[in-house]
Fold each of these.
Amino acid sequence: MSDRALVLGRIRSALADVPADEPSAWSWAEDPDPAAAYRRGRRDEDRAVLVERFLERCGEYSATVQRCEEPSLVAALTAICERHAVRTLLVPPGFDEHRLPPDLAIERDDPPLSVERLDIGDAVLTGCAVAIAETGTIVLDGGPGQGRRALSLLPDLHVVIVDADRIVSGVPEGVDALAAAVTERRPLTLISGPSATSDIELTRVEGVHGPRRLEVLVVAPSGEDPYWAAAERG
Amino acid sequence: MRIALFITCLGDTLFPRTGQATVAILERLGHAVRFPAGQTCCGQMHVNSGYAAQATGLLERFVRVFGDDGVDAVVSPSGSCAAMVRHHYPRLAEEAGDAGLREAVASLAPRVFELSDFLVGELGVEDVGAYFPHRVTYHPSCHATRVLQVGDAPLRLLRRVRGIDLQELPEAAACCGFGGTFAVKNADVSAAMLTDKMEAILGTGAEVCTALDSSCLMHIGGGLQRQRSGVRTLHLAEILASTDAGGPAHA
Amino acid sequence: MPDTGFPAAARTALADTQLRRNLHVATHTIRDKRLRAVAEVPDWEELREAGRRIKQHAMRHLDEHLETLEAAVQRAGGTVHWAADATAANRIVADLIAATGEREVVKVKSILTDEIRLNDALRARGITAHETDLAELINQLSGDTASHILVPAIHRNRAEIGELFRRHLPDAGDLSDDPRALAGAARAYLRDLFLASRVAVSGANFAIAETGTVGVVESEGNGRMCLTLPDTLITVMGIEKVLPRLADLEVMLQLLPRSSTAERMNPYTSLWTGVTPGDGPRAFHLVLLDGGRTNALRDTTGRQALHCIRCSACLNVCPVYERTGGHAYGSVYPGPIGAILTPQLTDLHGGRTLPWASSLCGACYEVCPVKIDIPTVLIHLRGRIVAGGQAAPRMEDRAEHAGMRAAAATFRRPWLYRLAQRVGLPVARRLVRHERLMAALPGPLGRWGAVRDLPAPPAETFRDWWRGREETP
């Protein structure tokens, strides 16, 4: 007997007590019991609040976070690169050319660079698919402007541009937003701050294997600045 | 309210004053207390030690003795024994495969209460007219806290005791290390847990450590006495039964 | 699995003052952090209940979900292998590595591969497995085993680790004991390994049946390195890790980080679906291991042990674990979850003293993110082990059996119970006057008496008092 048949056979005989008509999976949508009714899709959706919360929480992971409007994005990026003395900025295919700092050496991952090149890279600039306010998480799904996984892993500095309209409130909304990428079999990476370890006496040390520094730039479309207005009023 | 006292085998045999105090409090509050003489042990020791099969007879006995329609509530000065009946009896009756027993347990278990939970949660009483002019710290025993979820009921009762100097116990929620046969099967770990609990108690400067379970108190008190620490243990019921007249009022 | 017995191992561990100190600091730190992380979530209890239901359904229909997962992974370009036991799993992994022609592989932390002793099996086939998680690296360099699910080197302090690195890592002669410097040394050492490796072995936190997506939750980035850079990725996963739907992640990704590292979210989570052209490994193998999990599945009470998502919150709050550490459990799964998982995985042949390694305080159940009722399963397994007579060979066990039977017989007969009180109390009153003698007795009385006095037995029982009271008009 194959191990497959053996294991499945053991499982079926072990589950003899389970009624045949029982649903095989549980979901909040099918079970109205309040005991399991975790909040889903019912959070405050005021974008200004979400943006503020994302900035605060992402920043608490000791990532450097700031916000800007589209017209000042290039200047903000230039300042970041100067601060980190970046000589060459690695950029994924599909990244919006208008957003690139004009005075900086740019190297595109197209055709794909060798891992040795990525390893000695100063910095990589990517966008993101989704950002989750509640947890300060950035999600890359390999879509345009995000690149393959190695690109945002090996360089020492990762600069991420988060378009404000990509910020969702919580983890459930984030998982919803990623469903399409999963269906297309694109790999996902959820990033919450720079890499860290607490393996030695539970003392948190940042920057173990991934990029040691994470710079996050939240960008609102332009001019009117509808995204921060409410937060600043409040 | 017609109340049946579930004294527990340990309380009956080794700590009668706790039972006497429980009777005194309930009667002082105007309730009629009965003591069904056929009661022995709820079977907790057996069930928790892996002898659940031996305990089925005790389950049946408990249900027969206390399942009287004339009783509104069964009250016990033991968190772990009340937890045994409320939490484990339904599962054990289910496993025993006896439909009659299952139904009897389902009807009885919700009427079984730990004393402080009964006083505050069921009777809505916090001031039981007690007077106890001593420095006291309260150890929340695990089964009362985590299984029965008595919450701050014992503290509410203690705060209303006149003359009391109530001290908060640091790391209060930590288990004292009794755990029934754990105390002798894993005696070294139990002793290490007891040491930390005693250190916390001594740090409060209390003269009395109180709790809802005579079993935990036997373990803590045994350790405190071995150290000649000058701190004694006293069941909550005995503090609540104390009055100006001194000592538990024996009605 | 060797079964030296928890009480004896615990006694040794309790005497190790450095270990006690390390464990106390570590468990208390993470405990307080977890409380804060959980308090921030208003729907935490509902999430726990949802998590419990998701896992319960997943386990109760495990065959269906595994077949769905298999089909989805294969559709996405992966290959699925089934292993009935550790030997089969190790053989599959070794064969897959051998087929690539590689002799060295990098590994992401995986308790499951510790469980099946994969590294030893690979060494026997001439393959070197390099652990890349910092704590696993520490343990591998020192020839030590994990003592905690999440922080496997929790029993080591910085000075011990500094000494180890200075001895074993290249160019680390003047390395300080600062955790930052130690982590930096590991980064430099492992980076070369990551870039050179062509095969990686990982475990998995979750696998989504409907999409074939596999997930690894981590902090350091060694996981991302292993999952991304090599050409071939071999993931070994216990069959219980399957989740039916992608949406289940929205619950698990909230429960796990806060329970585990007490963070809102762990630094990195990688989710991949088969093979993606131009991104990551070109070959992906998923090995599904039973390894005794179906034993647990057969037990309708014990089954819930398979719901575990390996957060280790139960270890961190356990008063027993806090004092003995993980090694005393003699099992790769220590603490309360280990005490219910290990005996079941070995069909009660191993870890037979573990269900008693608990005072039943219930702190584990209170924090478990998927609400595994660990105390109830402990009691249940105690019953199974006693009933199976498997604890019988020792004299003391036989005495306990007899004593328990006699006690039950007594409690069933009130007249006998009263007689026992009447005979026993005077004896006890004499005994307690000789506490030194008592402490010297063998067996349970002596162990009680070693650190505690017995209470002075009363002059009359409660029932005698009650009868006297009723007789007095």
Amino acid sequence: MSYLAKFLSIRPSRALASLKEKQPVWAVLVATSTVAIICDSAIYQLNQMAERSNETRLLLTQAKEQMSRLKSLEWESISKGEIDDNLVEELAENQEATEYILGKLEAIDRRDNNDSLDRFFVAYSAYRDQVKEALELVSQGKIKEVLEINAHAIDEVYDDLYSKITRLEDRYVYRNQSTRALADFGTATALILSAITIGILFHQFSQKLRHKKDELEVAFGDLQQAQDQLIQQEKMAALGQLITGVSHEINNPLGAIKASASNTEKALQEALLELPLLHQYLSPEERESFFALITQATNGQPLVDCQGSRDRKRKLVIQLQGYDLDDDRYIADLLTDMGISENLDFLSPLLTSIHHEWAVQLAYNLTCSFVNNQIILHAVDQSSKIVFALKNYARSDASGNRQLVNVNNGLETVLKIYHSQLKNNIHIIRDYQDIPDILGYPDELIQVWTNLIHNAIHAMAGNGTLTISTRHQDHAIEVSIADTGAGIPADIQHKIFDAFFTTKPAGEGSGLGLYISQKILEKHNGRMAIESQPGRTRFSVFLPA
Amino acid sequence: MPNAAILCVDDEVSILKVLKEQLKRCFGRQYIYEVAQSAAEAWVVIDELEQEEIKILVIVSDWLMPHIRGDEFLAQVHQRFPKIIKVMLTGQADEAAIAYAYQQANLYACIHKPWEEQELQQVIRTALG
């Protein structure tokens, strides 16, 4: 009740505010039920009161009618001047009925302790006394006295009584009406109160709903943000893996370029110092042999593999043994590096000279810039390719629009970036068909190819055959990437596209690669299929052409 | 005739070519200079040199190579020839691989590509004492 009192005494806004402070629903319900019970009992009481007032009024009306009938009977006997048996009987009957009604009224008077009713009873007994006196006089035959003295008094007393009972009647009518009005007011109040309670509960409920909705929206936003972050992390992780390969691909040619340039410089410095001695040290015949060596060196193929070089050097050593040199191995080494092939007959004059070592060294120094230049050009080509591939890899259309994508080129870009890792004894079979360009997001598709190729390399542990094929059929293109790795067990094949599913050791794979790839393909209205058995796993990607 | 050799291992011919020239220019005819494009080929060269009774003093190896990576190769060499000085020359190697090489191959130094000629020569000169 104290809660209710407090609740009712505070302003609605405060009430709502206090409800907002997470008042439990049950408290509101208990309060409402209490108010409802109180209202109901009050309205019941009021209705009872109104009913009683109405009852009293009816009794009063009956009493009034009864009295006027009684009065007319009595007056009839008085005016006749005699009381016959019929009249006595009728009077007695009416008297009895009147007494009965008055008895009820007396009971009400006792209950209500009503002054007006008291006064009515006083007036009634005065009237009764008057009538009784008059009737006695009539029975004694003193008609004249009755008419002269009592008739007037009786009339007066009766009028007084009549007006009293009429007032009483009016009062009870009024009381009945006002009680009814009060009950109606109570009912209306109760209804309003219920409406307010329902409103509050509804408001509270909708507040809670809105709050929950807000919470859910925030959680959903957080989730989306987390997902974006993970996708970004996955991208960065893929890029990180690539950096290993890329830095190798870039630093290798850079090292070659740097060393070649400084080698050329040193060789030319040395050569320029020695060159003036040429005429002094070598005869014309030896010089001819010397220039022939230079000509052959500049036309030679210096960049052969080591095994070939060693074989060539061995053969040269055998040939040089015929010249009885104490440094045949060193000379053979220089000649091999100059790209000189097996037949050394043209060098015969030079090799028999006492300055043969000086001459071969000078020829080497003069020609090594050609080799070094070739190395530099090769290195520049290598780095350009990787830079081009990187540019393709990172290309993204700022407008976010689809553009025409050449899928074969995208696959080649990824293979270029993975070049260093694919060197590890992985045989690549390119089976490209002439496929049409498709509309899509080039960087995202490259992410898919990167993921599939990376997984394939990982599955083969650096050893096996990677087959990449592209096909065009029925308004679609199919890209399949197959490896000869261990395969994916049948029981986990359905899980591999799930987010966070990974077979790699903790910390190595995010488990998002295939999940994101599939999302990217969905964005392109494409799909991915997998067939796997030990020794052959094939991911097929279908994209609308 | 020198009876000591320096062996360079890298999968790129051009790197081997310039590396050999730099070493040759620095140490001249003191040593024999051999090159190999992979660990497997390096073992062939090592065996050949052993047959010729030529002692390998230093091996300079790349890290990222086909089949076997530099750190593993040097660790294997260390098992058989603990006295050979092992140097890694790499465009990229993760920290773990370098740490592994120091521990398992008693790596003498790790030089990063693109390298300074002076640094390379200095490392080998000091190593050879």
Amino acid sequence: MEDRRAKLAAAQRLIAPLVTQSERVRHPLGCAAIDDCLHGGLVQGALHEVAAAEHAATPAAIGFLLALVTIAAGSQPLVWVLPRHSDFGLPYGPGLKAFGVDPGAIFFLRCANTQEQLWALEEVLRAGAVGAVIGTRPTGLDLTASRRLQLAAEAGATPLFLLRAPQDHEASAAVTRWRVQSHRAANDSLGFLAAPRFAVALERVRAGKPGAWVVEWDHATLCLRLPAGVQHRVPEQGSGLFAA
Amino acid sequence: MRQTSGGWYLDAPCPVAKQFGLYAGQLLSDARARVPKLITTPVNRAQEQTRLRKLNLWCTRFSPYVAPWPEIEDGAAGLTFDMTGCAHLFGGEPAMLHSMAAALAQLGLSVRLAMADSIGAAHALCRHGVKAQIIVDSTTQTQALRALPVVALRIGTQTVATLRHLGLTRIADVMDLPRAPLAARFGEELLLRLDQALGRVGESFSPILPHAPARVSAILADPIRDQDHVLKLAAALAQDLMPLLERAGLGARALSLNLFRVDGQVLRIALRLASASRDPAHIIKLFALKLDALTEAFDPGFGFEAARLDVTLGQPLEPLQAGLAQTTADATRLTRLIDRLTSRLGSDNVLRAYCRDTHSPERAMVLKPAGAPGIWGDCGLRPLLLLPRAEPAEVLALLPEGPPLQFKWRGLHYRTECAEGPERIAPQWWRNGESPTRDYYLVEDQSGHKFWMYRDGLYGASRPPRWFVHGVFA
């Protein structure tokens, strides 16, 4: 056992210089269970993908994505590359404000085609001038293109959060991939909706381990927490486990 | 030829037609009687004006201050140039006139050029002088004007006719007369025009290009066609521009690159910056993005032979000190990024959200080209995503004056588990076609999907209320 530990330590020393500077900056989510799986938190200069478990859960996926963005970027300016078509409408300023995101800090970009969209994402990432970039993963984005985005995120030390379509099975170079299902919100003592909750699964994480939790977003303190007394189950794609 | 109430008249006969004795203003029937094989086309003033304007733009390669004459006289159109400080670029005044004549002749135009101290004298010599190219200075100007007919003074036809009737046909005849009787007989105009021609009274004109705080130009020995060469040229111009801006204490907020084609067309590439800049590398990057976006619209024709870079809008910019604060560096990086995005995507596609003081939810936010950040106060309970248009929902069961218990939206059934509301939003009565009073509810179904729904209208009103989904919550 001692021998194996020493070997592991030696191996870690060996790869230490290969870990880029941007990978060393991590943003803890504030929930010990999740941060353990993430090796300390979300990597700053990296591509993160968030997918809805089913089409109807897309708003929930966007909500969870924004929670991650807020944790990673704080009050820095953001860039949101708008999709050309969205089934659930466009981001709404007053709603963003209510969620805890300052709409005035966001630059919205509209692109004519996928090519322009990828150019814009890369340009913004490499500039390293904003806190985070939000986008929609173009359908059929291949591994090479997604690797390009990952490299751009590393180069600019800027996190990129892409919303992934529920049925998208294409391979990607994302450092983390989350799957989100809608969940009943927390009610306060008067029965009013107090804080949105999301059933999330960490499906993929580089050098970490997957997991599944129900998390609650506190829009006042801008942090995620794990509510007590909620059953944590893995939301499977399209299974509707949480629908019953 | 042109049509008037009296019939068709000749407008601008060509030199050959003039040899046959035809003149401008002649009745077409008379002209036809003289020359039966006369070829005529109707005048198209609008087309002439646009062509003149294009020519005017192209001529800004000689001097930035050019304007067309107010009207086309006897079929001859003209341009007024302010040549102050321009001639040395072409190797002196005679050389400049030669190169202008040569360049314009290449466009297939027959030109007459006159350079004088006053606009009036230059105009008179150009229209009525003997030589096709003439330069007069303050000493020879008066002498040159004396021999010209009075019509060269830009005075009304009525005055010309009266003067001719009195036997005053040349400018010399009018010049030597006492002024007081002339003013009494012909009014102010004649004396004013005479004084303007002689340079006794100042005269100004409005060039079509607005004043630019700084501009630099280059004339090329050989025309260039390649996009890379254009960029190199623009880079050289931008380098030249910076000392001018620095001396003026300005940064560029808007620029335009004018590329003059051999065939008389001008390609104009305009650029706006998010904040004043004096960095040639940044400006060139933006032009490169603009040129890339042009693709097919980038048409060099037979090549560009001259270029000019104008700062169309300048803004005071303090000289930057070494050792910038980190925040300033971050801000610069951001504004430069926004500039690059705006250049490539267009300013309508780089947007920011601005709050509007209204209760109407669909009007509360507006996306506008990125400028200063919008200020957002607390807006209350609002959905994260707003549908572009509220969509009708079929309500299957409800409490009277309450939220729906069961509803169908986009073909799916939802059962309400929890609801919050209502928030009543009254219509803006001053807007036409505004829907009736709305009661908004946050409705959550048993799987946690949250909708922002409203009831359109009140119970007991003339038509039954309808339900709509207007947005979704996370």
Amino acid sequence: MGEEAWQLSNPFLGIAAIIVTFILFYVVGYISNRKSSSVTDLYVAGASIGPLTNGLAMASTYMSLATFLGITALILQLQVPFIMLWIQLILSIPLITIIYGTSLRRMGAFSPTHFIRERYGLSASIIAALFMILVSLMYALGQMIGIALAFETVLGIPYLTGLIFGGLVIVGYVTLGGMAGASNNAAIQMVIIALMFIVPLAAIMKAVGGSGWFFPPLLYSDMVPAMLEAMPNFFDYQFSPKWYVSLIGLTIGSLGLPHLAMRIYTASSLKSARTAMVWFAFIIGLVFSATYAMGFVGVYATETQGVAISAADADKLTLILNLVYNPEWVTALVIAGAISAGLSTLSGNLLAIGALLSQDIVTVLKPNLYVKTRLKLGYIAIFTGGIISILLAINPPAFLVVSILWAFGLAGVTNAPLIIVGVWWKEANKFGAIAASVIGGALYIIVSPFVFPTIVLTGHSVTDGMGLSGAMLAIPVSFILLIVVSYVTNRIPKLSTMLTTKADHILIERIHGWKDIHPRRYNSTIGAAITVAFFTAIAVWAIMPWNM
Amino acid sequence: MNAYKLEVRFTIMMSVLLLLAGNVALIFSIFPVNGMLFGFPIMYIIPILSGWFGILFLTIVASKIGNHIDEKIEQANEQGDPSLEQIEGFTKKKKNYEGA
């Protein structure tokens, strides 16, 4: 089987599947959106969503087009190390919930930037919001690339036409839908997406001779001997422990993702948010495991079945496997599922951009704006963010996952330390926060290959491009700056008049549920010193040779 | 301070356990293991199983303990320590957030 142009021979099947899926989503969005009349409703659906729906919505927001298209492409490229990279991304919602989600929910904040504003003041929050907009745009970029590839496969049209057509349809949907529509939709989407991914995977596994096709996420061990024979190094870890340590940067990055943290605030109570976390872990574990199986089968098919996939088509691996082994109508459903996955994540990204721009920047600078004007600004920001992500996707990176994971790293550098330290250490102040996000963020951008291709830490293009090496250096630097600068400036009398120390202490006690102030709570200097020592060691290790 | 200590210890311990369960590959990259389990190489299937069922188990535990700590903090608030400064403007601030 030689290389070929992969597309549906009957584009009407694909269009029909997409239209039916969209009608379903529009109807649910319309019904739930009739209730959305306030700003709070638009962004967090009035904090009224039950645990299973919220858990599904969390999973759906997290399970982006990367799950359908991106992961399998990089499993084809890197094999098992990429699976190991992806596994720890399940930690996002559990860690957000445990470390700061419930605290921020108790505070009543509906975005991490809102917390940063209350904790560190306006300047720090505007800087954080600007970085978060960049994070959301880079995340949305990955989705846009995937959507363009999906439309390219359905209609046999060029990538650029698919991008503009598909991008505009989806941006229009999100702008009209709001989070209430998106949350209810996201739960339905999650069920549909999971079925559209796992059922066709079962059929593919059966077609290539796998006997465990009835539960594809875990039952493909009978294909392992043939895989080892055809590709003996498939299961090799390939990289040193340092590379695996750098993956934790992605975990920290997921703690700073604005659109993900927002899902905690849609829960009806703290208990409900914690139960949603359990559902999230179950569902996302199932889907992630199915994705590894799809990647395994993809490599198996190329190595043992003669399916040839060019480097340029790597992101289409899931679609290509369906085109080769399943009837066209199944591929059409998979494409509709992929677009749904992109849709739910993109809606999360764009709504985060809307909230960041209208709530966290414009309203902060102009607090007397009418509620209706703020709502309008939100819609304009959502639409503009969508258009910018379409424009960025015109000249995309080699793999769509690269921009998404790079965004994780940036969130980990500029946002996560401010929230984590801000929630757990009273001494953290605005000088430390500004130093951490500005210097840490600039460092991360400088050592990424997109701005100065010659200033990189490893020289291994995927490792640098995904931000693994940059995050391993910049996240520790950000934590160190936040702690050290805060500690020093708190002890300079001239600067202490510019700080709101007492209000900060009250805020921290309150978001942990306390109604009184205890000077020894959340105020450990030893804990801060240990954190600085630990991160100094990691930062030094990051700049030493990677030998890749 | 008991509820406070419990909260801090729980957060640190649970974060470490979750990080370990999600990063079994890091441990295997330092201490490689040969052999097969359920038909897969051990270094492949254990990280996948731990990254699903291990994390699921920990979230169930974290959910239960998190709710328990909330109750403990609430109890400590009710008992109240008169030597400590009470948070002023609690209701007012909360109202402001809700209106934001």
